[in-house]
Write a structure and sequence with these properties.
It is built from 12 helices and no strands. It is mainly alpha-helical. The termini are far apart.
């Protein structure tokens, strides 16, 4: 029996955020295999909340403080899900000498030196690059970058298989490949929130998009060479690094 559209959306919001959507509806287990098909849609929510927090806070606090508060707000909304993946990604690829060792390290819940260093530099760069923008450009960039990074990163499920067995997955979920129809939907979800950035700022859009595309392509090749497959940690890490590269490009524009 086909999974209903609203079931897939609910599964995605429940999976990728810590907002209690499960109180409103409990989708079937099969719906969680489709969550990446609506991953950019969750970016509308997480990016929208972060942008709203920044917009509100910058009218009360100095802008650097407002940026820090906006980052903290998104961490609460997502439960630091992708940041956990980023730390595990750097621990695994930094400390692992072969495929099996990388997978073992990434599955370990303890954070290591590489993960700590990666998070420190990630948050310093994220905070610094958002502080470098005019406030409204930063707001529009957040609205655009969150869904766009998720749209690009979601394609990893079509480029390579899952690196573990399903029963060995941390969240017991393996994403299904994305169909052509779902890919078109992902493009709409990922690119539509960028319209205000194009209309209301002087950012050269194609240059801003080129940075995350190149970042994702490089990371896909790197992961394939090391693992010949992806994990959930890889998805989260690729997403955050693609988003950060978007901000860096916007700042340069």
């Amino acid at each position: 029996m086909p999974i209903k559209y609203h079931e897939r959306i609910f599964a995605s919001f429940i999976f990728f955020t810590r907002i209690p959507f499960w109180r409103l509806h409990q989708p079937p287990k099969e719906a969680y295999a489709t969550v990446v098909e609506h991953w950019p849609l969750t970016g509308w929510l997480t990016g929208g909340i972060m942008a709203a927090a920044l917009f509100g806070a910058c009218h009360i606090f100095p802008f650097p403080v407002a940026v820090a508060l906006a980052i903290v707000v998104r961490l609460f909304v997502t439960g630091a899900l992708h940041e956990d993946g980023l730390a595990d990604f750097f621990d695994g690829f930094g400390g692992g000498t072969d495929r099996q060792r990388i997978l073992v390290i990434m599955k370990d819940s303890h954070i290591g030196t590489y993960g700590v260093i990666a998070l420190i530099f990630y948050f310093l760069l994220l905070w610094g690059v958002l502080c470098s923008m005019p406030p409204m450009t930063a707001v529009f960039a957040i609205l655009a970058a969150d869904p766009a990074a998720k749209m690009l990163s979601s394609q990893i499920v079509n480029f390579m298989p899952y690196a573990r067995r399903e029963e060995d997955a941390k969240n017991k979920t393996v994403y299904r490949p994305i169909s052509m129809g779902a890919t078109a939907g992902l493009a709409v979800q990922g690119l539509l929130p960028s319209m205000p950035l194009i209309v209301f700022t002087e950012v050269t859009w194609w240059l801003a998009v080129l940075a995350p595309i190149l970042t994702v392509a490089f990371l896909f090749l790197f992961v394939w060479r090391k693992l010949h497959g992806y994990t959930g940690d890889c998805c989260g890490a690729v997403c955050l690094m693609a988003e950060l590269s978007f901000y860096l490009a916007v700042s340069l524009m």
